[in-house]
Design goal:
Layout: E1 11-15, H1 27-35, E2 40-47, E3 53-55, E4 60-61, E5 67-70, H2 76-80, H3 100-104, E6 112-117, H4 124-133, E7 141-145, H5 148-157, E8 162-167, H6 173-177, H7 182-191, E9 196-200, H8 207-215, E10 219-223, H9 228-236, E11 241-244, H10 247-257
Parallel strand pairs: 1-2, 1-11, 2-6, 6-7, 7-8, 8-9, 9-10, 10-11
Antiparallel strand pairs: 2-3, 4-5
Helix pairs in contact: 9-10
């Protein structure tokens, strides 16, 4: 059984669970990832209208759930009414939105949950309470966010947990015209005592980029990679973790391509 306690590099993270095969961010997708021996699962969290932390990616429930209304404007009870599985097929009919506490209860010993925070700072006290109530060890939980002030506050509030700053890089067209300053990125990451970066796996993620991050003694994760050749290349230039919709598949294929290294 894969154990993160033995893991140094080459970590494969199941993006919203095994989201290629099961409905994203659901207990079904997350449990499938654990069943397939994923070392880590990434989820998205938001605060509902009644201050419950729910696991859901989009700001509204239109794409998955069919109701064009913001998550933060709905109570947990209202969110539970939605079928977030039927879009993946009849086998997933009546799948519901889980809470963070429900997801944390699924995490096996030696496995890791990566929590992307989609809400603003008002979620922090509720999140801190949920994490404190869980039975997970500190090395089993990591936080990520695109919101730099938020992830900085998370690190300040809960310094025992690894926290990484998410970056779009060339996922956004504007950054292809006006590339972000890497020196500034590293400076800000270290200023707020963050543990590393989690960046888009585009053309800006070069060997030189990776080397700069590694030499700055920061972790480097990347998203979202479903191609084994691309994944092995990224690991070989120094990336610590790859996030993928096909965790089980990617692990098997990467090990076949690059048998001299261990993938978790």
């Amino acid at each position: 059984m894969t154990d993160i306690n033995t893991q140094s590099k080459r970590l494969i993270i199941a993006h919203r669970g095994e989201s290629f095969d099961a409905p994203e961010n659901t207990l079904e997708a997350i449990q499938l990832a654990w069943k397939r021996d994923a070392a880590a699962v990434e989820i998205d969290i938001q605060l509902s209208l009644d201050n419950q932390i729910v696991v859901f990616h989009d700001l509204t429930t239109k794409r998955i759930g069919g109701r064009n209304k913001k998550v933060k404007k709905q109570t947990l009870s209202e969110l539970r009414e939605l079928d977030v599985g039927i879009h993946k097929g009849d086998n997933w009919k009546n799948t519901t939105i889980p809470t963070l506490s429900e997801v944390l209860e699924t995490v096996p010993g030696g496995k890791k949950i990566i929590i992307e925070i989609k809400s603003a700072a008002e979620i922090i006290p509720f999140l801190k309470s949920e994490i404190r109530s869980s039975k997970l060890k500190k090395e089993q939980i990591e936080f990520i966010s695109f919101n730099l002030p938020l992830i900085a506050e998370i690190k300040k509030t809960m310094p025992q947990y690894k926290s990484l700053w998410l970056l779009n890089l060339d996922y956004l067209w504007i950054n292809r015209i006006f590339p972000p300053n890497l020196k500034s990125i590293v400076y800000k990451t270290k200023k707020y005592k963050l543990d590393g970066l989690n960046v888009f796996a585009g053309t800006m993620l070069t060997p030189a980029f990776a080397k700069t991050i590694i030499n700055s003694k920061l972790l480097l994760y990347t998203w979202t990679v479903n191609d084994p050749q691309r994944a092995t290349y990224l690991f070989n230039i120094g990336v610590d973790a790859v996030t993928t919709d096909k965790a089980s598949f990617l692990k098997e294929e990467c090990m076949a391509i690059d048998a001299k290294n261990v993938y978790f």
